Structure formats: C-alpha cells, structure tokens
Amino acid sequence: MPEFGPEELRALDRAHVWHPYGPMPGRSDPLVVESASGVRLRLAEEVHGQRELVDGMSSWWSAVHGYNHPVLNEAATAQLGRMSHVMFGGLTHEPAVRLAARLVEITPEPLRHVFLCDSGSVSVEVAVKMCLQYWRSLGRPAKQRLLTWRGGYHGDTWQPMSVCDPEGGMHELWQGVLPRQLFAEAPPADYEESYARGLRDLIARHADELAAVIVEPVVQGAGGMRFHSPEYLRVLRQACDEHGVLLVFDEIATGFGRTGTLFAAGHADVAPDVMCLGKALTGGYLTMAATLCSSKVAEGISRGEVPVLAHGPTFMGNPLAAAVACASIDLLLGQDWQREVRRLETGLRDGLAEAADLPGVKDVRVLGGIGVVQLDHDVDMAAATAAAVREGVWLRPFRDLVYTMPPYVTDDEDLARVCRAVGAAAAAG
To answer: Pfam family example for this protein (predicted)?
Structure first.
C-alpha cells in the first residue's frame, strides 16, 4: 500500500469515506490520526499548534484502558498466533467460552446465558428478538411492543431506532416507518413519586401488548447525557414482575465501571431479564458486544414452536475479540478501578465547576467518569472542536452538549487539561 500524506488522505476521505452522521461527500475535514498511545492521539500534522491530543472521549467511551496497552496488545498478538477467526456455528473455542463464563460471573443474577454479537446496536436487536420470541413461545404473540422513556438512545439499526427518542432524536426521519413503541416522559434527575406512579400505570395499562421495557439505567447516553435516580429501576422491576413484562437494561455505555459501579444496575441493586453490553467490553480494541439473559427467557424460547434463537452474525464469538475482551475485563478487575473512577469524578467536579458561570451554560453535571456541560443552545461544532484542540484535547460535542468520558488511566494533570478544554469548547460553542 502506498503511503499518503495528510492532504492526499483528506482528499480521498472527502471523496470516498462516509463518516458517522455525516453527509456524502464530506463537508469538513476530519483530523488525521497516525497513532495512539496511553491517552494521547498522535496527529499526522500540527493542528492549531498541537500535534498530540489527550483523548477526552475514550473513542466513543470504549477505550477505558487507553491505547496501545501492553496487556491487551499481548492478548491480541497471542490469539493471532492461534487463530483470528473461526465460524461459531457448530464450533466453539476457549476465548468465547471463557468470555461468556466471565460475563456470567460478573453480571447480576439471574443472567446466565450469553449471546455474543458484533456491535452494541446488534446486541439490542438480539435483546428485542429474545423478548418477542419468548412471548411467542409462550403462546402470547400479541405481546410485541416495547416501552421506554424519552431521551434514550439504543443504536442505529431497526429495532433500536424504534426505542430512541422519536422527537428531536437522530432517528426522527423514520417516524411512521419504524415499529410504534410506547414512550413515557424522560425520567427526572431526582426521584418523584408522581413520575414513578405514571410508569407503573403505563405498564399496567399496556401489559397485554408489552413484550418488554427497555431503558438505559441511571445514565441516558447519546440521547442527551441525562442522569436519573436509580430508584426508577426498582419501580420498573417491580411493575414488570407484577404485570408479566420483561425488563431489558441497555448497559452498552454504562457497563464496566463508567458510572462508579461495575454496571449501572448496581446503583439500584436490581437485575434485568436481559442485559446488553458493548463499547468497553474489549477496551476499545475490536468490535464486540453481548446480550445476556436469564434462564427463564432462554428456556421459554427453547420450548417454543421454533425452539432456537434465529440469529447468527458471521463474526459471532470472534476469537480475537473474545481474547482481548477477557484480557480487558481481567485488567479492569485486577486493579482498584472504583478508586480510579472516583478520582475521575472528583477531578471532573472540581475542574468543571467554573463552567457553570459561563454565558450560555444551562447545567453542569458529573457522575463517575462522565462530565457534561449543557448549553442553552446547539453547539457550534467547528468552533467548539477547534477550541478544545487548541487546549490539546480531543472532544466531540453534539447538539447542546460538551461532554467528556475520558479513559480511566487519565492522570490528574491530563484530566485538568480535559476540563479546561471542555470549558473552552463551551465558551466558544
């Protein structure tokens, strides 16, 4: 392959590469990254006086251990020497089995069964399919709708889009085409009994048609970076049990310690019937996700007229990704990750406090390794990004939000730099 200079790369990128949530051809030039190590992205050329940027995004929340980590590199290299991939139909292998067993060990009871898939969005698709097929297998095919609350985001494939916020969300275009689901109002930050009563009533009224309730526990991610009381998870669990509805937690963004507990469900000590995992599962090295379910769900499906879950991605259970995922989980749990996330939380609270006084700032909120500055207007993406880069930090604001979810290995000095960049981006945007 010939080596391209930055200008040639940008020209080819603009002509041929379709970036996420972008037009084709592209209208802005992305920064060219040539390497990454620790928490830093090395650019192919100097931009706004910077050649290296501290990554304040963990590559969309996945690279919790940073980049080029020797433990994860070794896991990938060792597995490459054995096999990078083998089909999962009719075959199995140690990395996938070991990963499934590890996930069952660390997730809440009664989650006992693991379906390995290749992206977070697909894990939600699989979760929905599990719930629909469970009720069909029990002779109740009318239970085919989903309930969620507004402000959520669950992915870009079909069923996940149907439970994203239908108004003002990224998938508003598909109203009238997607399955029509049920939406409660967005959950308040603090516990309100009137809101909880409304959730209970909504589930009770629609129990005969509801297959499942699906929510992001405690933190709504790309739908708006909102935090809500864990008590609502207990309300949902009780109402679902009372009215015969399955409960699904989408922990793709919140899993593996990001909110201060290993899984956000731990804030409420509540277990779902189905759980979706992704993003940090492999430490940001390879794409892999997982859908876990209880024995009740698995056995219900297996007793049905079609006694199999008819889903099987080509790269399901990929040995390379599974090996790195096992190494990533061991790396996380082999250290005092809670102390590190608490350190991030303290640094973000202290570092972002002054942003509350900036003109146009509506709210500043922090939970675990998540820091959010919400504006009273949509962010000027170009201006905000440039301001962060000038501070030596990579951020990716969206809508009215400038936020950061840094790698857990970000030290205090770099964390302070990230906070300064968030403030600069908020002021410029």
So the answer is: Aminotran_3
